[in-house]
Amino acid sequence: xxxxxxxxxxxxxxxxxxxxxxxxxxxxxxxxxxxxxxxxxxxxxxxxxxxxxxxxxxxxxxxxxxxxxxxxxxxxxxxxxxxxxxxxxxxxxxxxxxxxxxxxxxxxxxxxxxxxxxxxxxxxxxxxxxxxxxxxxxxxxxxxxxxxxxxxxxxxxxxxxxxxxxxxxxxxxxxxxxxxxxxxxxxxxxxxxxxxxxxxxxxxxxxxxxxxxxxxxxxxxxxxxxxxxxxxxxxxxxxxxxxxxxxxxxxxxxxxxxxxxxxxxxxxxxxxxxxxxxxxxxxxxxxxxxxxxxxxxxxxxxxxxxxxxxxxxxx
Length: 315
What we know:
By secondary structure, the chain is an alpha/beta fold. 38% of the residues lie in helices and 21% in strands.
């Protein structure tokens, strides 16, 4: 990464304005990495604006400077657009973001290398890359940057239990805690503040779990009617797929969510060697070997059949 970091350093040396963008339906890694990257830029005297097409989910509003994240990009042309945790440019949303050059910082194996500078490393989280970049730029990791990066790591590794957890992940996490990140406070803020609506829709989704292939494939679905009935919001559905994955004997878990009529969001998780990224990519999405997703147009029952048939063929 040293050569790429040098290219980024050179680019930043004559940058005055930058937009740092998260991906749509933002998670902890993209938000934490975006905040940390923006703080690093500001320490370098660069005017940095943070942009998230879908705003900030409630669970992450405790992060430092999360109230400074815009859901509409600035209209002026910036020197740089820096994307974090996005495998393709379309992942940051459909709004035009005027910028002279793009720096693409990511850790997905299916990244399309859409930037003028592509810093793509298969580490546990983009936070690991941003941390190493900060060291290369000789930027002090203060408690705010440390907290943002620590949250990025715990959310993308499932608190260090996913197979993407590496020796370097623990090394970086240790240094972030020493720099001021508080593990218990971060974990409580992210995982221990569920809404009543979130608990209700979780229970209803779990009651509807179905299986195929003798329990090796498990899946559940959430309709718009169920969301309305429980008064839930999109962010209340976060984490349901990870609970499906924990069912004994399950190798693949799938969550179908009806975002609107004839538009279905599909999340995949797997255990073992089953590559859900391959399935997601065939359906127009992407992701990691054990965590991926896509959006499919069509009635939910038709989408379910299409997706499940494809997975069964892979078995």
